Amino acid sequence: MPENLSVIEALGTRKIVHVDMDAFYASVEQRDDPSLRGRPVVVAWKGKRSVVCAASYEARRFGVRSAMAAVHAERLCPEAVFIPPDFTRYKAVSAAVREIFQRHADLIEPLSLDEAYLDVTVNKTGLPTATQVAKTIRRQIREELNLTASAGVAPNKFLAKIASDWKKPDGLFVIQPHEAQAFLLPLPIGRIPGVGKVTEVRMTELGVKTVGDIHAMEIAALESYFGRWGVRLHQLSRGIDHNPVMPNRVRKQISAEDTFPDDVPLAECESHIRRLAEKVWVASRENVRGAKTVVLKLKTKEFNTLTRSLTSQIPPASCEEVTSIALRLCERVALPPQQLYRLVGVGLSNFQDEMMEVESPLFSAIRESETDAL
């Protein structure tokens, strides 16, 4: 059929595997401490301002999720065992997983300590299919590291990412090129990577509930509603993603944002900034380089975007320092107190080649940057 043929041609001939470790931090803790097995484990610093780094599947049954406030997780699951994160140990295990990947592919794009894309269009072990590569990788992780991983196999990164989540935990799902369109169209829009809860609500208000609804819209309409993201949605609804697997990709920024249900003044953003600062600090621990720049992002109710940043010769050495800097950047916002905001974000950028080990960094030679962008 012409439609199917055009879709297959657009998808291309790549063979992509997305591997995602199951509840990675929590699973490492349960593996290394037998007394934790079968119990609800939450990897987080316990405290009213902490966020969840990871939750075991036993904890997830109570509704505990990553990036959730730790106090909320404790309310949902009073029996949870809270374990402070040990990123040195997680990095060591991640390196062992990466060594397994390298047996099979040269094109490997890590997304974090616990997930990566592999381009196995040509694999190093001579296995006949990408599915066999994925099965072998999962078996080696289980046998050698006593951990489980889920994997998705597809003709591009977008589909492989969705596929890896389809049969979690400890699952494998394959999307063949000729199956992509039929698989995608019934999916709820929240399944599209990058469509968060706020965007999902906005789409639902427009009558867009499934990928098929996006597929039925004209590209001009999508662009008018969602800007450049609308063009991307048009492609994704057709299963099209030409982004290659990028080995040794340098991460330029780590950031997290909150879009508020109702617009709020800056004075009410402090709790959000504290939580976002901890979230990006936790994410930065997965990176081997220190970030010299802390960024505060705000979006007004009129959709004007403001950023304030602070750069130092020495990176922040703790979550408390990142939080303190982000809150101080609020003082650089010159808009009146009654101004309302719909979004706040905190980011880290300007990474070093290596993480610097310092006991008490002093923010010297500080450069302050302020930009207002419409």
Automatic annotation (TrEMBL):
<keyword id="KW-0234">DNA repair</keyword>
<feature type="active site">
    <location>
        <position position="115"/>
    </location>
</feature>
<feature type="domain" description="UmuC">
    <location>
        <begin position="16"/>
        <end position="196"/>
    </location>
</feature>
<keyword id="KW-0227">DNA damage</keyword>
<comment type="subunit">
    <text>Monomer.</text>
</comment>
<dbReference type="GO" id="GO:0005829">
    <property type="term" value="C:cytosol"/>
</dbReference>
<feature type="binding site">
    <location>
        <position position="20"/>
    </location>
    <ligand>
        <name>Mg(2+)</name>
    </ligand>
</feature>
<dbReference type="GO" id="GO:0006281">
    <property type="term" value="P:DNA repair"/>
</dbReference>
<comment type="similarity">
    <text>Belongs to the DNA polymerase type-Y family.</text>
</comment>
<dbReference type="InterPro" id="IPR036775">
    <property type="entry name" value="DNA_pol_Y-fam_lit_finger_sf"/>
</dbReference>
<dbReference type="Pfam" id="PF21999">
    <property type="entry name" value="IMS_HHH_1"/>
</dbReference>
<dbReference type="GO" id="GO:0003684">
    <property type="term" value="F:damaged DNA binding"/>
</dbReference>
<dbReference type="InterPro" id="IPR022880">
    <property type="entry name" value="DNApol_IV"/>
</dbReference>
<feature type="site" description="Substrate discrimination">
    <location>
        <position position="25"/>
    </location>
</feature>
<dbReference type="Pfam" id="PF11799">
    <property type="entry name" value="IMS_C"/>
</dbReference>
<keyword id="KW-0963">Cytoplasm</keyword>
<keyword id="KW-0460">Magnesium</keyword>
<dbReference type="GO" id="GO:0000287">
    <property type="term" value="F:magnesium ion binding"/>
</dbReference>
<dbReference type="GO" id="GO:0003887">
    <property type="term" value="F:DNA-directed DNA polymerase activity"/>
</dbReference>
<dbReference type="InterPro" id="IPR050116">
    <property type="entry name" value="DNA_polymerase-Y"/>
</dbReference>
<dbReference type="InterPro" id="IPR017961">
    <property type="entry name" value="DNA_pol_Y-fam_little_finger"/>
</dbReference>
<dbReference type="GO" id="GO:0009432">
    <property type="term" value="P:SOS response"/>
</dbReference>
<dbReference type="InterPro" id="IPR053848">
    <property type="entry name" value="IMS_HHH_1"/>
</dbReference>
<keyword id="KW-0548">Nucleotidyltransferase</keyword>
<protein>
    <recommendedName>
        <fullName>DNA polymerase IV</fullName>
        <ecNumber>2.7.7.7</ecNumber>
    </recommendedName>
</protein>
<keyword id="KW-0239">DNA-directed DNA polymerase</keyword>
<dbReference type="InterPro" id="IPR043128">
    <property type="entry name" value="Rev_trsase/Diguanyl_cyclase"/>
</dbReference>
<keyword id="KW-0515">Mutator protein</keyword>
<keyword id="KW-0238">DNA-binding</keyword>
<comment type="function">
    <text>Poorly processive, error-prone DNA polymerase involved in untargeted mutagenesis. Copies undamaged DNA at stalled replication forks, which arise in vivo from mismatched or misaligned primer ends. These misaligned primers can be extended by PolIV. Exhibits no 3'-5' exonuclease (proofreading) activity. May be involved in translesional synthesis, in conjunction with the beta clamp from PolIII.</text>
</comment>
<feature type="binding site">
    <location>
        <position position="114"/>
    </location>
    <ligand>
        <name>Mg(2+)</name>
    </ligand>
</feature>
<keyword id="KW-0479">Metal-binding</keyword>
<dbReference type="InterPro" id="IPR001126">
    <property type="entry name" value="UmuC"/>
</dbReference>
<dbReference type="InterPro" id="IPR043502">
    <property type="entry name" value="DNA/RNA_pol_sf"/>
</dbReference>
<keyword id="KW-0235">DNA replication</keyword>
<dbReference type="GO" id="GO:0042276">
    <property type="term" value="P:error-prone translesion synthesis"/>
</dbReference>
<dbReference type="GO" id="GO:0006261">
    <property type="term" value="P:DNA-templated DNA replication"/>
</dbReference>
<dbReference type="Pfam" id="PF00817">
    <property type="entry name" value="IMS"/>
</dbReference>
<keyword id="KW-0808">Transferase</keyword>
